[in-house]
Design goal:
Number of domains: 2
Structural class: alpha+beta
Helix content: 25-40%
Shape: elongated
Strand content: 15-25%
Largest sheet: 4 strands, antiparallel
Strand order of the largest sheet: 3-4-5-6
Order of helices and strands: EEEHHEEE
Number of strands: 6
Distance between the termini: 25 Å
């Protein structure tokens, strides 16, 4: 995905491990997602095929929204359930432009 922020900065999602990309899960989906992980761990079976099936069941859950942050102005873009991007603009210039960066890289 490629798009341009209103400030003119281009945002391109063409690789992995992007510091300006993140995933959002609603509180309504979080408990179910945790339960699916627990079930995959506890009931995955002993064979490699059973374990792979359990892992793929968790990965196939469609509970995350993709989000991006513009490094120019700090705006946040979030995909809705119909894959439409919505922009959220910071109140002022003091907003961190690295809000989606990994905690381990902070």
């Amino acid at each position: 995905m490629k798009f341009e922020c209103e400030c003119g900065k281009r945002i391109a999602d063409q690789t992995d491990f992007l510091s300006f990309k993140g995933y959002l899960i609603s509180d309504q989906d979080f408990s179910g997602y945790q339960a699916a992980i627990d079930e995959a761990i506890e009931k995955s079976g002993t064979s490699e095929k059973e374990k792979e099936s359990a892992i793929m069941a968790v990965r196939s859950l469609n509970v995350f929204k993709i989000m991006y942050q513009c490094s120019g102005c700090g705006s946040i873009y979030i995909n809705d359930s119909n894959e439409n991007l919505h922009q959220y603009t910071p109140k002022n210039d003091l907003t961190s432009k690295k809000i989606l960066q990994s905690k381990s890289n902070a």
